[in-house]
């Protein structure tokens, strides 16, 4: 019999704390009330209902009724109700689901009676025993006796299409999630018992969990055709009750419930009840005492976890199956098994194939090698990377202080700690999170950062930023800030957070560049004045749950996402061609398509410049790997302040190589007006051609591996083959997400305008379709595509991007001449733009790739450097901004050249995995005060596998030309040298002796 003698996840201390807190604090009391309300509703049906509602292996489960065709009544109309739209109430109407788009109920037969007719002597459903005469349409007899009838394996309509009503019900309304009877009831009983100690909840939960244990060992989702019965298994066709990915969540409910009910399993009432069930159904385990009941659950559930993880039946994203096995190991609490299972969690390995299996939990290797230096996993999508933090955090919490496996404190791991800092830099205008990759909806206000995570991080680590974030997420107040319900004195943390706010002030986010993850945000504005705005660029991982969107650009202002990414696809699977051809494709993002093909895979591009000053904020990134035929693929974007409430951006996108360049840009939902264009409507077809219908692939490979243009998903096309120079598009943005409270889709005064300079072969406007099964998503977004064609093209797409409200603040935009000596620069090495504002200010913006050449701009200014802005009004300078350059000013100016950049070599660096990292460098003579280096970036030459750009927190002179550069908790470690032998050390993104440079900025005014 089992050796476990205690609850080890819900320890006595935790339970005592929770039961005190639910009596003392209103927020904790509400948790208890919600749990009891839900538990009492389930309990009202009686123990027999709960015990017998656990269906056996012989019924398939599926998360989709039919993803391709939608509703059998309304087709794709059902998409507007979400990914998994069917409704049901498993307590009041069993085995029935309702189509919300039509109101029809399915299946049309009385499946409950049919199911009961097929139960054998052990209470298991057998199709050979079931009475098939009961498979008759009783809901809508006028449609015929077999219409909508499902025997558990789906209904085939007269077109040969199959709809899996019962499998869907079995998945969503019996087994899985809050809506699932089994998981929902177990969660409610578990929490109600933990908060109250009332045995009635433990009895009900134990009855249900014991029945799950009877059946769980034989569960195997692979017995069913995956092409019909869809499950989240990462195309492995593995899982037990459900697909292997979501199985990781379901089993945690089973494991934690067992631990919660563990002390109550000797209760005479539950023993008597289960002993009677055992006799009635001829079960091997007599269940005649608490030890037998515990043994049944341990054998049938807890001890199934380890082999199921190994067999990839419980196997999800990073941290999912690992935390499930950690929980099982600690709850089982029995040596040597517990140590063996936990050793496996930390053992290097991963998912192997033929057959699918997991060779090790890989936790330490993953944290070092797969989590980047900014704390993000390798998923690209903030939503999916958030899974890494939540699940590894669960493992950390379970192991925190666990006495049978000491020395496994993940909170001491620098990479795990960094994961808590991964998401707040993605916060945009304090309302949005970067929705790169498969994340969120199309432009919806959404914050990835979790309040409870920030409170916990501050409690664990003490960093002021976590207190500021917690305060911000709690609506800038300390009231009701607390630790979780299982903590003693959970509200004391509020005073500590208040102390930080008093000392450091509330959250005030500046521009940032996450060079490991590949994201930069240029921010301006003040929260209290409602003037927050930003431009951002994504240049990180573009595979997995990422999109092929390297150098994608976005903008927020006036409370809106003015150029929203499409976000999460309709379905993140191999069947969704809308995703494979369009949503993840390069053309659907604000970037450049080369040779009508999707970008190639990359981990992260190479930032070259970043700066954040009052007047000008700058990001410059090269992506040498996304198109093998290009020798340059580079975007330079500067955000230029107009006044306290407004900014515009100058955007320069250079592409050298290839024969077709398509610059794609779109605004939010709304009407579009143009200037400088004579658009002719294309009467039929798509952007792929007048004879190509929507969704019809005409290029690239078949299926989800498609690498073509995606042009066949752009509709309602208008073209201009003789576009003017300049030309403009102006989106009058609708309030899609009801930010202003006047109704979703209402008109606003917010605009996004783009003005493009330079010659192009063609300009087109076309509509792209966002995912339509995300409630609230716009139906269409209007795209502008500027096309250049030729041979071995060298393009410089030059744009001014102008968010404004009501009336424009820009009067005119024009390109001005750039000369080297008296020779006019006709190529793309340098470009200058003149922007005239409504208040009379004139801005000259100039950018050059040749920083050692002195240029004449508009026969007015001299410039030598990478980027400069010269602003004047009434002939007098307003401000001057010069980055990575030595000269910017009027032709007759006599100022001495500035120092454009510092250069040097790396002497040494922090080689350990540490919270404190530094570079020891030798700088060439420069005469710069070390304090001036804080906020700058060191760009180190390396092997090009990943970039080596490090924001500098502070600098100290430690000898002749020798400096210590502090880069904080950003590590130089790329990966372990040998994942199979972690003792062999690390691979680094930099090396001693490597050259580096630090671009400098010079501002006046």
Can you put this structure into words, describing what you see?
The protein has 1005 residues and is an alpha+beta fold. Among the domains are: 1-55 and 179-227 and 246-310, no CATH class; 62-175, no CATH class; 317-422, no CATH class; 901-1004, Beta Barrel (Elongation Factor Tu (Ef-tu), domain 3). 23% of the residues lie in helices and 26% in strands. It is built from 19 helices and 46 strands. Strands 29, 30, 31, 32, 33, 34, 35, 36 and 46 form a nine-stranded antiparallel beta sheet that branches. The longest helix has 21 residues, at 290-310. The protein starts with 11 loop residues before the first helix and ends with a strand.
Per-chain topology:
Blueprint: H1 12-24, H2 26-43, H3 47-52, E1 87-89, E2 93-98, E3 105-106, H4 111-117, E4 155-156, E5 162-163, H5 165-175, H6 181-196, H7 199-215, H8 244-261, H9 268-281, H10 290-310, H11 320-332, H12 337-346, E6 351-352, E7 357-358, H13 363-369, H14 382-399, H15 414-419, E8 427-428, E9 432-433, H16 451-461, H17 464-473, H18 492-504, E10 512-514, E11 519-524, E12 533-538, E13 552-557, E14 560-561, H19 577-583, E15 592-594, E16 606-612, E17 616-622, E18 632-641, E19 647-656, E20 660-666, E21 670-675, E22 680-681, E23 714-720, E24 727-735, E25 746-757, E26 762-768, E27 781-789, E28 794-805, E29 810-816, E30 818-820, E31 823-824, E32 830-837, E33 842-848, E34 855-857, E35 861-873, E36 876-890, E37 901-909, E38 917-923, E39 937-940, E40 949-951, E41 954-959, E42 962-968, E43 973-976, E44 986-988, E45 995-999, E46 1001-1004
Antiparallel strand pairs: 1-2, 2-3, 4-5, 6-7, 8-9, 10-11, 11-12, 12-13, 13-14, 15-20, 16-17, 17-18, 18-19, 19-28, 20-27, 21-24, 22-23, 23-26, 24-25, 25-28, 26-27, 29-32, 30-31, 30-34, 32-33, 33-35, 34-35, 35-36, 36-46, 37-38, 37-45, 38-42, 39-40, 39-45, 41-42, 43-44
InterPro entries: Chondroitin_lyas, Hepar_II_III_C
Subcellular location: Cell envelope
Protein name: Heparinase II/III-like C-terminal domain-containing protein
